[in-house]
Amino acid sequence: MKAAYKKYILDFKRPSGTSRGILTQKETWFIILEQDGKKGIGECGILRGLSADDRSDYEEKLQWVCENIHLGKDKLWESLLEFPSIQFGVEMAFLSLEAQNPFILFPSPFTTGEKAIPINGLVWMGDEAFMKQQIQEKIDQGFHCIKMKIGAIDFEKEMKLLAFIRENFSSDQIEIRVDANGAFAPNEALQKLERLSTLAIHSIEQPIAKNQIDLMAELCLNTQIPIALDEELISVFSVVEKEALLQKIRPQYIILKPSFIGGIRGTDEWITLAEKYKIGWWITSALESNIGLNAIAQYTFTKNSLLPQGLGTGALYTNNFESPLEVKNGNLHYIPTKDWIVTITGF
After folding, report:
1. How far apart are CA 88 and CA 91, in angstroms?
2. With contact defined as beta carbons under 8 Å apart, do 292 and 28 qualify?
3. In sequence order, what are the residues at sequence separation of 6 or more whose Cβ sits closer than 8 angstroms to the Cβ of residue 275?
4. Is 282 exposed, middle or buried (0-12, 13-18, 19+ CB in 10 A)?
5. Could you tell me the pTM of the whole model?
6. Is the Cα torsion angle 185, 191, 195, 201 positive or negative in sign?
7. Distance CA 25, CA 8 (A)
8. Edge-to-edge strands of the sheet including 117-118?
9. Helices and strands counted in the chain (H then E)
């Protein structure tokens, strides 16, 4: 078996705002395997300043993986605990190599086009007019669940935008999720949660910054809005650590990004623990290209979750790969009659 890696820069169609700044580009890497005339591809995607494996030795580790690909998927995964995005890329690449079609990793009614995955419509941070425009677009596109990133503009303006949705649509018509990306100050978090609760919010992701375990546990105990942990799960590598975190905080939900938490095996570990402690969960992409998004979506379908998932990021880039993935009426579809067009050297 031969293995190589390739770097690829994804360009955003328009700058996308988070509480950590404006994104214009995203780096990603592809692991390409070749054996007996067949090829497989896996994506290793990180977000600078957020991923646990945003490290200076990242490419060195990718090279090590390629040189030791003979160890196989399981042994490599166990050797890559501190590199969750590479764990996922390795899993994906081996599944791709073993598959009849390198892009059908989990055959199902999703990949045959018979069923779709409900997803949330993502509203990026920006000025009030831009965010309102996005909200209207998502509603016009048929989304029944909207996720709005908050924490970048004045809270009163954000409340006004959320009120705009609620004045026009009940919680039965439009589910609202908000994502604070840890932007709330500890001394004001509970008060802001109380104010948000007046707008029938489904849940809030990461109201305060990670690593404030006692305070987050207190918020989860006293909140009037279900709290979902997101960044809090990053850099929690062992099953023992994962269980201790959930036991301590007792969140209402956890958000699972395979590229951040050890790929398929890491996500399965979190789901097993969440179900043990009656904690809800859903899966989201972490701004991967369509190659990574495809793997996440196919895996997600197999988990049979009824909640809207966070898989609507395929249209963000000018230079994404053409794929059968398509968003229609708030659902992600796989259109089997559409072809993949992947322009990566070596694949």
Report:
1. 5
2. yes
3. none
4. buried
5. 0.95
6. positive
7. 10
8. 117-118, 331-334, 325-328
9. 10, 13
Q: Cα–Cα distance between 243 and 245 in angstroms, integer?
A: 5
Structure tokens at 335: 């259109």
Nearest to 29 by CA among 52, 1, 61: 61
Tokens of 24: 């214009």
Q: Could you tell me the pLDDT band of residue 7, with boundaries at 50, 70 and 90?
A: very high
The two structure tokens encoding residue 340: 């993949």
Which are the catalytic amino acids?
A: 149, 257
- Spatial separation of the C-alpha atoms in residues 338 and 344, rounded to whole Å: 19
Query: Could you report how far apart the first and last alpha carbons of the chain are, in Å?
Result: 14
pLDDT in tens, 105-160: 999 999 999 999 999 998 887 788 888 888 899 999 999 999 988 887 789 999 99
Residue with tokens 């489904």: 202
CA distance 324 to 333: 8
Beta strands in 173-241, from DSSP E residues, in sequence order: 175-179, 203-205, 227-229
Q: Is residue 254 a contact partner of residue 279, using CB atoms and an 8 Å limit?
A: yes
Among 270, 271, 265, 288, residue whose Cα is nearest residue 77: 265
- What one-letter code names the amino acid at 236? V
Cα→Cα distances 277→108, 158, 271, 274, Å:
29, 33, 10, 5
Burial per residue of 255-276, b for 16 or more beta-carbon CB atoms within 10 angstroms, e otherwise: bbbbbbbbbbbbbebbbebbee
- For residue 90, the one-letter residue type is V
